Amino acid sequence: MNEGKLASSVQDPDQEVSPNRRQALWEVLMVATKLGLTSFGGPTAHLGYFHNEYVRKRKWLDEQSYADLVGLCQFLPGPASSQVGIGIGVMRAGLLGGLMAWIGFTLPSVFVLIAFALLLKGADVSHAGWISGLKIVAVVIVAHAILGMTQKLTPDKERITLAVIIAAAALVWAAPYSQVILIMFAGIAGWAMYRKSPVTPAAKMNIPIRRGVAVLCLIVFAGLLVILPIVRHITNLEWIALFDSMYRAGSMVFGGGHVVLPLLQQELVPYGIVSKDDFLAGYGATQAVPGPLFTFAAYLGAVSMGGAGAFIATIAIFLPAFLLIIGALPFWSALRSNSHMQGALAGINAGVVGILLAALYQPLWTTAVLSPVDFALVCLLFVLLTFWKCPPWVIVLLGIVGGVAVN
């Protein structure tokens, strides 16, 4: 096949679906599924897998375009690695290409976590040793994520200080919207400190999305944030409450999948939708499967409402990612070159580190580390993950074995 003709057919937003476009869609689905089955290690590792597959191996986009797409997805709330995959699918094969990229990357881990949830449903596992092990694994994984994010997102004393202030505020102020307000405060602080910093010019990317479609997606995104809580209050239906909670969590998370933990815990556990033990067990199990960490929502939905709940939760938590990446792509070059926006982003990233640091203590540490032996197991697994570079699934298995042995 002529590669130039394929690229031309993919990049033209006005062209009808042709055999070349259908082949491109199939290609996007197959590559994304391969990544969904093999991409272990969390959001940062996913971006490495994507770079190797999409940039180095297949050359679907160049280095600068990939870096700018990653920058956009780090700026937007939602699952950054999933949004990068969706964005690449959109640039390769249009809007349907974005959908194929999401399906392939997401569904493998969704099916595994639904099976795990249904296995746990109705069983009293609160005192099981393997559950304790999964809780300890969750502590290790989040601590490792904080370490990596701190090195990149808080490289100076100002942002480190901002992160600690946000962490302290998040621990002492546990209101429903406290984390959103704290992220906004961090953005304002970043704008004040870094709005005059130099900005790297953005690469020129071919985006097959009309600006009208992009604006409509942004309007739908904002409208659902306003309408869903109202509908939830009026109807008092369980599935709408689940959709609202998941949509809001997917809309407010900056910094990747690990940061969704405190938001989902705040949305679901206090209202009895899932128990704390089931919540932490599922989060630990999520580390053992490839693909995006946001598939944790499928587990939570299955625990609360079975298969239908898993479907609702998965769609709801990823829907903001779709709407935002499609809405932002056509405008990214202009936003990327704005120093005020870059300053706000620097503060938001520091705030993300603070939110995650608070989550490491509550609910993770206070629930999982209950004895000196638990602490020793945390230290051992952390060293294996951080310095010996053991795969996350190995850490999960060792955590389960350790939890059983300790209990």
From TrEMBL:
<dbReference type="Pfam" id="PF02417">
    <property type="entry name" value="Chromate_transp"/>
</dbReference>
<feature type="transmembrane region" description="Helical">
    <location>
        <begin position="375"/>
        <end position="406"/>
    </location>
</feature>
<feature type="transmembrane region" description="Helical">
    <location>
        <begin position="308"/>
        <end position="332"/>
    </location>
</feature>
<keyword id="KW-0812">Transmembrane</keyword>
<dbReference type="GO" id="GO:0005886">
    <property type="term" value="C:plasma membrane"/>
</dbReference>
<feature type="transmembrane region" description="Helical">
    <location>
        <begin position="99"/>
        <end position="120"/>
    </location>
</feature>
<feature type="transmembrane region" description="Helical">
    <location>
        <begin position="132"/>
        <end position="150"/>
    </location>
</feature>
<feature type="transmembrane region" description="Helical">
    <location>
        <begin position="344"/>
        <end position="363"/>
    </location>
</feature>
<protein>
    <submittedName>
        <fullName>Chromate transporter</fullName>
    </submittedName>
</protein>
<feature type="transmembrane region" description="Helical">
    <location>
        <begin position="162"/>
        <end position="192"/>
    </location>
</feature>
<dbReference type="InterPro" id="IPR003370">
    <property type="entry name" value="Chromate_transpt"/>
</dbReference>
<keyword id="KW-1003">Cell membrane</keyword>
<keyword id="KW-1133">Transmembrane helix</keyword>
<feature type="transmembrane region" description="Helical">
    <location>
        <begin position="213"/>
        <end position="234"/>
    </location>
</feature>
<dbReference type="InterPro" id="IPR014047">
    <property type="entry name" value="Chr_Tranpt_l_chain"/>
</dbReference>
<keyword id="KW-0472">Membrane</keyword>
<comment type="similarity">
    <text>Belongs to the chromate ion transporter (CHR) (TC 2.A.51) family.</text>
</comment>
<dbReference type="GO" id="GO:0015109">
    <property type="term" value="F:chromate transmembrane transporter activity"/>
</dbReference>
